[in-house]
Amino acid sequence: MKQQRMLIPTLRDVPGDAEAASHRLMLRAGLIRQLSSGIYSYLPLGLKALQHIQTIVREEMDAAGAQEMLMPALHPSELWKASGRWDVYGPELMRLEDRNGREFALGATHEEVITSIVKDEIHSYKKLPVTLYQIQTKYRDERRPRFGLLRGREFLMKDAYSFDSSAEGLDESYTSMYNAYVNIFTRCGLQFRAVEADSGAIGGTDTHEFMALAEVGEDTIVHCPSCQYAANLEKALGRMPEQGAQSQASATSEPAKIHTPAISSIKQLIQFLQISPQQIIKSVALDVDGTPVIVLLRGDYELNEIKLKQTLGAADVSMLSENEILKLGSIAGFIGPVGLPNVKILADISTRGIIDAVVGANELDYHLTHVSLERDLPHTTYLDLHNVAEGELCSHCGHELLFAKGIEVGHVFKLGTKYSKSLGATFSDEHGNSEPIIMGCYGIGVSRVLAAVIEQNYDEQGIIWPETIAPFSIHLLTVQPQNEIQMKLSQDLYTALQQAGYSVLWDDREERPGVKFNDADLLGFPVRVTVGKKAGDRIIECKERRSGLSYEFTVQQLLAHCQSFFPIRRSI
């Protein structure tokens, strides 16, 4: 392709709301343009990179035995109501009505649709297992679209669904998809981790997220460098360090009420009493499916709502209002577990062993000191309800856990019979008995992968594409297009490289050399070939974008170098 005729609108400056590096670079390099909040058009270079990612996805999915299909983006509400998700999915589901008042949703995910198809088409165990997938645009009404393609309202996704006749079959399908994902993200050039995760609105049991490591990531990954345990923060389990020795005098002291005027936060309490957060037990007042619950946590820990929901089997958890706290006999900012009647109290394991704690006194401007839960609330139930914090130990091997930021690029679930039962997708087993089909679900954010790759591969000059997904493999620059010798050599190179199977963008524009070099660095293709003042000797410069290494080659030497540099030739 000749750059003179290609739509590559590079920019010097980008909008101030482009916070993420990938967002800035994709705008500057002319890969995308915003149409509305969270909605983007892919310009030619962006689409080429996206297509290369799709090719990798298709190759690995096909190799794993999955079959590609394509489902509608417009879903009748009846399907979602049958599964129970129409009312519980939340405001992210984009809903609309047709001219007859019939309700529809724009597909955020396709469990209901694929289950209804399989329900009608597969009735015998002899047709199982089967795995079906599609690559299609999805829609979610994000409350706060941000970071360009990392969190949009319209995005490209690969979603796959496996159907099995047994739990053992689901295990095999899950492992097959897990391995395919490892191959996909490795080939795309991503640094990633597969972490234990929560299934969220999709449902299901066993699940892993594939997280691309990046500081801009909105997810926190907890991992062990010793045994390779990894989980997202919502799911991570740690082991509390041993508590330090505490004063025996404090252990035998009775709770004492102290005046703490206008001191209602942990930070204020630490400063006022000159104590550490480890000496504070905070009380979090919650509405759990309509029932008030107080959760006790050490002052430096945060509640993990996912763990709480799973522990109690709850659907909804929200904070109690100030008026609701008053009805319990307490006051916001000064809630404490001692003397609070008729309220369910749960204690996080972080509070176990604290024998000289400060808690709220359930009275305005007062706290209690010298509180010991074991003594003052002897029937307290201790549960793991907190977010794992730095300093905690791995629950598997005891090594100190590490924390990193990540971008979720893929997710695999074992759905079981959640959707097949609600939608009536059954099969006849070898004995003629009717059984619900056992399902798995496997998603990849294809457009998010594109942004995540750039988040991990750039420098001050621009993008540094991995060879496998770069829009073009080679950027050919003619320094002086008006020079016949340079143009003749450039044409020879352009032809030879394409015939050898490489995708080439030829910068034949009438621009200053500095503009061309800057644009080449910004676009970041793996190899830049420059035809300049040594064209008469048929000598060209070859520069590798990632390493910065530069060579002078003849045409034949360049072809030999490209053969060793690119493991796979790609001309699209």
UniProtKB/TrEMBL annotation:
Annotated GO MF terms: ligase activity
Main localization category: cytoplasm
Domain of life: Bacteria
Keywords: Aminoacyl-tRNA synthetase, ATP-binding, Cytoplasm, Ligase, Nucleotide-binding, Protein biosynthesis
Organism of provenance: Paenibacillus marchantiophytorum
Signal sequence, start to end: none
Coiled-coil boundaries: none
Similarity comment text for this entry: Belongs to the class-II aminoacyl-tRNA synthetase family. ProS type 1 subfamily.
Role played: Catalyzes the attachment of proline to tRNA(Pro) in a two-step reaction: proline is first activated by ATP to form Pro-AMP and then transferred to the acceptor end of tRNA(Pro). As ProRS can inadvertently accommodate and process non-cognate amino acids such as alanine and cysteine, to avoid such errors it has two additional distinct editing activities against alanine. One activity is designated as 'pretransfer' editing and involves the tRNA(Pro)-independent hydrolysis of activated Ala-AMP.
Reaction catalysis annotation: tRNA(Pro) + L-proline + ATP = L-prolyl-tRNA(Pro) + AMP + diphosphate
InterPro entries given in the database record: aa-tRNA-synt_IIb, aa-tRNA-synth_II, aa-tRNA-synth_II/BPL/LPL, Anticodon-bd, Anticodon-bd_dom_sf, Pro-tRNA-ligase_IIa, Pro-tRNA-synth_IIa_bac-type, Pro-tRNA-Synthase_IIa_type1
UniProt domain comment: Consists of three domains: the N-terminal catalytic domain, the editing domain and the C-terminal anticodon-binding domain.
Xref: HAMAP family: Pro_tRNA_synth_type1 (MF_01569)
Assembly and interaction partners: Homodimer.
Residues covered by the Aminoacyl-transfer RNA synthetases class-II family profile domain: 33-466
Protein's name according to its UniProt entry: Proline--tRNA ligase
EC code(s) of this entry: 6.1.1.15
Compartments in which it is found: Cytoplasm
PANTHER family xref list: MITOCHONDRIAL RIBOSOME PROTEIN L39/PROLYL-TRNA LIGASE FAMILY MEMBER (PTHR42753), PROLINE--TRNA LIGASE (PTHR42753:SF2)
